[in-house]
Amino acid sequence: MQSLLTSSVSGGSDLTPFEAEHLVQGLKTFSIEDVGTPRWLGQHTTVQRLNTLAHLQAQHANDEYVVDLIITHEKLEVLVHELVVIECWRECVLPHLLKQDSFVDLPAIKNYIPLLHESILVNLLECMVFHKKTVTALAATDALVDLVDYMHRRLQAAVALTHNTTRTSTSRTASTTSSGNGDTTNREVLCRQEADSAFQVCMGAIALTHSVTEYSQELPKPVVKRIVEQQDWLLSLVPLMDAQPWLRENSRGRVEKYENSVWQPVADGDSTMPRVQGQVLLSIYNLVMDRDCMANYEITNFRKQNLLKMRRHLGEVVCDQIPPLLDLRRVLEEMSIQGNLPAAPSTSPFIVELVAAIREGLLAKYRGRWEEIAKRQLADVFLKRDTSEETRSLMRVLCDNMDTIEETNPTCPQCGKPAEKRCSKCRREFYCSRECQVLDWSRHKKLCPMLAQQGQAAHSKALQSDSGTKLRTD
Length: 474
Prior knowledge:
The chain is mainly alpha-helical. The chain has a domain at 410-474. It has 22 helices and 5 strands. The chain has helices at residues 17-25, 38-59, 65-72, 76-97, 101-104, 108-111, 113-129, 132-139, 143-160, 186-214, 221-230, 234-243, 275-289, 291-295, 301-308, 316-321, 325-338, 357-366, 370-382, 389-406, 434-444, 448-464; strands spanning 247-249, 255-259, 262-265, 421-422, 430-431. The strands form 2 sheets. A 3-stranded antiparallel β-sheet has the order 1-2-3, with no helix packed on it. A two-stranded antiparallel sheet has the order 4-5. It starts with 16 loop residues before the first helix and ends in a 10-residue tail after the last helix.
């Protein structure tokens, strides 16, 4: 399935300022037990619509009133709270749910939406934090520490990603299972979707990191010290340049890069760096070249060697694309000779230790209860059939959104090029040409009947909230 982040969502692009304000005013915090409930799904739809509109306004340089409304109505803390809640749910509750076949076999509209929610929240915050006024507003809230800590955890997760391994260029392409028959089980599909969602979140966190480091002068000094000294973001950012999770080689041996939330084949001779790579480089630049940041950074021998690794990533091709990196390269060369970085005089003011109140509060509240919550959610939320008209209407909207998302920027599974032609039988696989469809038929013929059957049953299954054993709709 293609990226779910910036696709057009029903009712998102045509919101009036008054409608958008009404939606923003209705944003509220939920508990971990609420994940997946009709009320929670309703807010998920709201966030999705606001995210779509915010990105459309940014792309077209329109009046970005979504950003202004969220700041004015003090909903930044709500967004950060919901981000931390869904992260805790994914880390602590989801593993217990994945052990249950009844959860794995649910339609995507039920068990994939919570995974998607974190990506959308990160994407919306990415759009907002691009503006200096958002960082300034965050600096006045207690949620800033939680957001900074979240970003640090995602940077660490990005370093550990294994997206450099050979994978297919579209998650709709089925992989061969251990049974050897080419079928893809529900569990494999959901686990792959979880991995793809985690990857999208990590890439979004890199964009957040770039914006936060760009406006580091707006941050309170204790937060700056937490970033550079206690968490040492440079120790995560520099290894990212070695790992380069935004590049991969697909199953056909072609190199692809992660650009605009989708994997795209790299043309021969194309040396243009992916945007996310530029964001990592500029984040490092922002931290190293900021005297206030480096005043809090003790250059140990280990940290020095870590920073000097950056020199091999600052060649002429890279510096031509981002000229300010020439200054970073010069500073690193001086550091290799002199042994330290130019920095402001070091001071040691008394600084109160900061606490990530949202996450710490959640972990303390639910400690030892994760399995219990998972069992209760499975029975009372995910497997429960709710036939109310409100829930049916919500499911109808979500199902329509999933269909729209799935068809956004499809790529050919054979060559990786943009695809516009569908398989006439299942209408779920896309190809760029008849030739590629013929070449791919030996693989696709095993999936085609199943996908065709799923397509016919998808909407009715979602609306009925059926918990049967049919294969997933995606």
